[in-house]
Amino acid sequence: MQDDRAQAEDGGTRIWGCSACATPTDRRNARTANLWGVFWLPVFAASVWLLKHYGEHSLAVCVGALLLGGLGMVPFVRAQLRFLREADELTRTLHFQAMGVAFGVGILAAVFGGFLGKILELATGSPVAAEKFHSLNPLLAMIVAFMVAIAVLMRRYSR
After folding, report:
1. pLDDT of the residue at 146
2. How far is Cα 1 from Cα 136, in angstroms, rounded to an integer?
3. b/e map of 8-23 (b: 16 or more CB within 10 Å)?
């Protein structure tokens, strides 16, 4: 494990994080999960856009957007679970810790988003700015928190 990392560093290619320790199966499973995640994000954004612009007046649009967003997530979740099931203990621990951080940030964003939007409205006197802030989905905060937590944890444990 350390030999792979030292060999990669000696060859001029710096491998960042724990990827030097990952098996080819782990790298393939992670790549598959990431690709499904990249595929799902625009599908989710499209379903949110449909709900926002056409969902008020049509039950069919609401159901379609729900199915589009929900069913688009299924392959991503399956790939992520496969990655975690087949990963080593350290990788699993890192991802579970990052999921915990992301869940906490998502809860905070959902609970305090309205309060922060109201504070922004009172401070600026602009209800438009507050509405833009309040309309942010807590999922965005969760995704960013997960990515930052993974980067920090991988950097911490790779030393």
Report:
1. 92
2. 42
3. eeeeeeebebbebbbe
